[in-house]
Amino acid sequence: MKPERIRIIAVLAIFNYIFLGSEYLFDNMICYATDSAGVVRAQNYVLGISVIGFLLFPCINRYFNQKMREIGLYLLPIAGIICIFVIQEHLSYRSMLLSGFLLYILYGMIGSAVHYYAVVSLSTEKGLAQTVGFGYAFGLLLQFISNNLIHNSTVESVVLSIFLAAMVLLVRRLSLECSRGVVGAEDSGTDSDTDIRKNNRRSLRHPMLAALLLISIVVLMTCIFSSLDNAVTLVHAGGSVDIGQWPRLLLAVSGLLAGVLFDIKEHRFMQIMMYCVTLLSTMCVVIIVWGGPFMAGLIVFYLSAGFFVVYFTTSFMDLSYYMKVPELWAGLGRATNNICVGITGTISLMLIETGDGMRISIIALILFAVISMLVYLYMVQFRMNIQEKNMAKMSEKEREKFLEDKFQAFVKNYALTNREQDVLRLLLSSDESVQVIAEQLYISRAALYRYMASLNEKTETKSRIGLLQFYYSWNQP
């Protein structure tokens, strides 16, 4: 692995550790002030409010200057550490809940930054799902080790605080590296923030429609998984089972497995794999509410939950490459999941407490049916167009002729001059900087920029990447 990927895995692992570790500490401390149902409700509240932080970061990143962002970055761990120790003291229900609100808003901001900088750093790399899976698994292993070695809430708070400070330093380093990358991209005539990975051969037909479909899929899946989560948390809060011990290893294993499987053929089978996992989880909900074995449900929950986390994290990070505001979409998977947990978690808890197995089963099956339809519609957005299907069946000579015919048709359709044709050919075949391409064409950089601006104007695109994306998705009349 490259050093950049290792740093991203490390920062994702630390983020997952402090996010889940703080949740575990919060649950254990608020038990002193409320009953098991109250613990579940409070947990859902703090997770739901974290979405504010995920939405705040894009605004800060776009409208605050570098100096103000630096100051905020150093203030975040101080405020977070104070909140952690207020929760650890468990003086009152109100103080713990308010500290939990502030802490998870801060975590939302940091998490949004982590996912965005990871997206920018991996813009030309493969293995996005594996990176997410490794980061998630290592974060859970950290929590597993912490839960087994640390049995004092004060020590646990100190460890969480140290990792929080370390994560902020890593985020700062990623921020500086990404800033240098953006400067380099501007110098070469590309738009780094909105660049689609160069190795991504799929085209997305309607990015905003795909985004709405993905949000809907994650929302409905969260309803099913949060129902399982609430059932498990109720047992944990009641003292029957400590879910902070060995079951966490199942989460780590499923996260690793999901990362490896989802990256097959550049995520082409990710949707159908997650569909099968959701089917299994739906069946598990039905079995549990009808009095099935709890341990079987616990194992299914942890195995499927790891797949789900890697799924929504990877899906939104991948989607952000196609969106105009990538820093908003990169971390929106976690935000969508958290807000749904906050909203639907209380409702599912009420249903579970009623013990009405028939009603819960019907709702779960209806949700799964709707998910099935939405997954199909989302997969259609990434299907190869007719030209790509035809090219897959061609020989090498036929493919070359087809590409040349398409190029000539494009030239004729947009009335490109001879020099603009030369520029476009090099842009299509080369990933070199503007300076290198200008030297190959024996023209100045300024002249090359003028030709590129003319191409953008004729095709109604705004950047070099936009032009290339438009060309590859253009269908010959």
Provide a quick synopsis of the model:
With 477 residues, the chain is mostly helical.
Structure write-up:
The longest helix is centred in the middle third of the chain and has 35 residues, at 153-187. Residues 182-201 have low confidence and may be disordered. This protein has 20 helices and no strands. Helix content is 80%, strand content 0%. 43% of the residues are buried. It is globular, with a radius of gyration of 25 Å. It is an all-alpha fold.
Structural key phrases:
477 residues, mainly alpha, 20 helices, globular
Distance between the termini: 44 Å
**Helix content range:** over 70%
Mean of residue pLDDT values: 80
Q: Care to count the β-strands?
A: 0
The rounded Rg comes to 25 Å
- β content, as a range? under 5%
Q: Helix-strand pattern, N to C?
A: HHHHHHHHHHHHHHHHHHHH
Instruction: Give the CA-based shape.
Output: globular
Largest sheet: none
Secondary-structure content class: mainly alpha
Keywords: Membrane, Transmembrane, Transmembrane helix
InterPro entries: MFS_trans_sf, Sig_transdc_resp-reg_C-effctor, Tscrpt_reg_LuxR_C, WH-like_DNA-bd_sf
Protein name: HTH domain-containing protein
Pfam family, one: GerE
How do the helices and strands line up, and which of them pair or pack?
Elements: H1 3-30, H2 36-49, H3 51-63, H4 66-89, H5 93-121, H6 128-149, H7 153-187, H8 207-237, H9 247-262, H10 270-289, H11 294-320, H12 326-329, H13 332-354, H14 357-380, H15 386-392, H16 396-413, H17 418-429, H18 434-441, H19 445-459, H20 464-473
Helix pairs in contact: 1-2, 1-4, 1-5, 1-6, 1-7, 2-5, 2-8, 2-13, 3-5, 3-13, 4-5, 4-7, 5-7, 6-9, 6-11, 8-10, 8-11, 8-13, 8-14, 9-11, 10-11, 10-14, 11-13, 17-19, 18-19, 19-20
GO molecular function: DNA binding
InterPro entries: MFS_trans_sf, Sig_transdc_resp-reg_C-effctor, Tscrpt_reg_LuxR_C, WH-like_DNA-bd_sf
Protein name: HTH domain-containing protein
